[in-house]
Amino acid sequence: MSEKIKFTIDGVEIEATAGQTIMQAADEAGIYIPRLCAHKDLLPFGSCRVCTVMVNDRPQAACTQPVSPGMNVESETEELRQIRVNLVEMLFVEGNHYCPFCEKSGNCELQALGYRLGMLAPKYPYMFNKHDIDASHPDIYIDHNRCILCARCIRSSKELDGKNVFQFVGRGIHKRVAFNSDTDLAATDVSVTDKAIENCPVGAILKKRTAYAVPIGKRKYDSQPIGSDIEALRAEVK
Amino acid sequence: MTENFEKAIREICSGNADDRTRMIDIVREVQQLFGQISGSAMDIIADAVNSHRVEVESVVSFYSFLSEKPKGKFVIRLCNDVIDKMQGVGKVAKAFQEELGINFGESTPDGKFTLEWTPCIGMCDQAPAALVNDKMMTRLSSDSAREIVKSLKENEDEYRLIHMLGDGNNANPLVNSMVSNNIREKGPVIFAKFEAGKAIHKALSMSPVEVIRDIKTARLRGRGGAGFPTGMKWEFTRGAEGDNKVVICNADEGEPGTFKDRTILTEKPDLMFEGMAIAGYAIGAKTGVLYLRGEYAYLRPFLENVLADRRNKKLLGISILGKTGFDFDIRIQMGAGAYICGEETALISSCEGLRGDPKNRPPFPAQKGYLTLPTSVNNVETFCCVAQILDKGAGWFAEMGSTGSTGTKLLSISGDCTRPGVYELPFGTTVAEMLVKAGAEDAYAVQMGGPSGQLIGEADFHRKICYDDVATGGAVMVFNNDRNPLEIAHEFMEFFCEESCGYCTPCRVGNELLKERLQVIINGKGTPDDLDYLEQLGKTISVASRCGLGQTSANPVLTSLKNFRGDYEKLVKENKDGMQRTFDIHKALATGEDLQGRKSVIYAE
Amino acid sequence: MAKPKIATASLAGCFGCHMSLLDIDDRILKLVELVDFDKSPVDDIKKFTGRIAVGLIEGGCCNEENVHNLQYFRENCDILISLGECAIMGGIPAMRNTIPLKECLDEAYLNGPTVYNPTGKIPGDKELPLILDKVYPCHEVVKMDYHLPGCPPSADLIWQALVALLENKPMDLPYEVIKYD
User: Fold this and answer.
1) CATH code, domain carrying A153
2) I need a labelling partner for B84 at 20 to 30 A (CA). Which of B180, B307, B318, B347 fits?
3) What is the ipTM for the molecules in this complex?
């Protein structure tokens, strides 16, 4: 029924199903394209731009761009690697990311991308902007210092939890995630079991009393680069 | 009181059919009535339109004309774009501050006045300019600023501020504005004579496909700047699935330095609306929307009247000109102060009552646009061309201009020139020819196409204005030898930082970083490495940004760096001793010295 | 030929990065074969004895003495390395960067719940270096040539980076050694 489409990523021919995005097709083929806002259970969003690839020499976000027959996708080029490093560095200097004591360290997707892309230190100046913390909820802790504005919480709440707990307010560098309440997070209908809480890629949304449970060395990205799970498929596909 | 408050807000909501897609209209009305959209107002609105408070807050916090905090009865928005600064807005600002006793961003304690800065309001040819609520105040001086405040204090009526009316329809009682058209050169397309109804009459004698064919034969391209072939856009929209289609006219001209659409909206609205109706016929649309930038609200009563008139003449409405099955009408959607809404998918978001975030493409608006209906968004000027093409023929149009760029182009020229205003020139005119017309022979740098375009110098003045050479949406800003290209670029970066929707990383963060490093160089603290830094960063923003705003936002830096590299190189110095010149130990110590009441011995001044 | 010299300093840091340096264990014997240790808290040499090949800086700059020391290192070192998160981005001390200095000092010395300070004054002895308005990453004060992240950077990272530099080879750092925590 579903039409098969052939195209190449970095010269590797892969087969996809019509209607898939480049990222979905690449994932299935065991080719990892770096990403932050994209999440397998959520609709494509296209905000972090880390998955930028060249499609027939034009930049596109792999998470939102549908596949088309014969398209020539470039992903692992030096130029794109540099752009991705730059984007990750922008996020590191925009927020206040204190990896040394962050509960998410070792399991954080932003940090893991920094590792994978070989970032030693951002070349951009740290902004040190003030951001709020909300610890009002008995089970959930929110630290906007670590938020990368990927909207996973907003989208998860809507798409998976059937709620509307989060939304963006403001624009530009002042953009931030707000709660559907006139006071704080505790006044919303959020629950610690919401997917919105689980799907935060960084340490901005955390479940209280769960931190530092896994020792250093055993955490998700301590020895396996982010994307290794997808790349492990490549061996099978081959 | 509270009951009345709730009743008033619920009435506003029901007046908009409790339709959450009309959120911008609802919150605009609430803002107008109460001077703010408070948290409790958001709760009531959310309840009335079956949405969520945070969704309302999301919209309110996005647009600069909307505010959760209370605004004064009179909001004075003074334009701070680069041209206004060149024309002495500083003195005007000081006069306002002194008369009102407040700073920018503040309100007077009695709640009467709020003083704010605003980016370009489309009056660069008569700068400095300000908005007092909806009223446009032009050619301001410190004296007139003081008079404005005095009059408002005495009369409490912004209508009494209008002493002298502008030319043409600016003097129409429905416009009642002191704005001048400043139409300096009339061409054969936009400012030619036009009889309402003639073009649509001809269109209706053809099939919709034939109309599109004519537009393609005329090789008409979008006038907003991107230059996409109009006929092709219409064909896609016509061919998309669905019976209900939409035509949107983008009258959100917010590119600093652009004011060409202002003159069309004032003097040629019939031509524009006729073009929209023809588009409706060609693509099979019933719905037309004119998205009018919030700053041009003073033109709304006049435009509504033109629409009413056209309905009376059967040029809009059911069975237009007696053609059964061709029903098309136009409503005006007001913007609320957001440059990004000039981007077509952001504009659609705004029409839908959302934040002005651009949408992901695909689907393109032609496939799924306004409320998921196939939608064609075209520029004000493009619709005018359409009407003339139908009236006078595709061949007539295609003969003007150059092969890739047919017809004429409206240019709004401002800055260091003796004849600022609107010029209708054939495509293919050189920059140098244009500068002579505008009285800008001593131009050092010219910003072609506004901040998102390019800053060019004399070496490029021989080039032609057209899509294949120097493309422009119409904004031309002229700078003479006294101006510093870096400072111009910095002004524009301020603008993009202010207007970025913040959706994607490169535009939200990258532009802030670009602006920061540019300031370092302007301050004389930069190194040659910083020029590479700007180029690399600018390239990342251009390549990785999600929409046209971000993709062009680094242009002020990238094009000034390319065309005025000497001005940059003059300011940067090698860092030989390894000490960062950006680090100022005395500044870093000042607070500490103050708090401790002693001076540094190590770093004694 | 004389061995190249290495110097180290701890600015606004916790000495954890220095501990990590010592964690190279028996490789320190090999390191001593490769280099001479110059000014450093490890050997308590206070002044540079000559031109330094590599300077390792732990900690960011929170006061005038840090700045002075860092500038002194820059003048005397061919290669300067930010060692650890504090040198790279200010680290934990930089958490005060989003709070006005007066509020920080008041909280620390006057209003904090655990403060006992009968004088009611913020310590201001002239022997104390003056505090800066915020904590500065090292590279904002002087040019830094390399950054080795971590809290602390692992002994393996320090070892591999140092050896590469001393042997004039590219720093080819394996995934496992680059960590920000």
Assistant:
1) 3.30.70.20
2) B347
3) 0.97
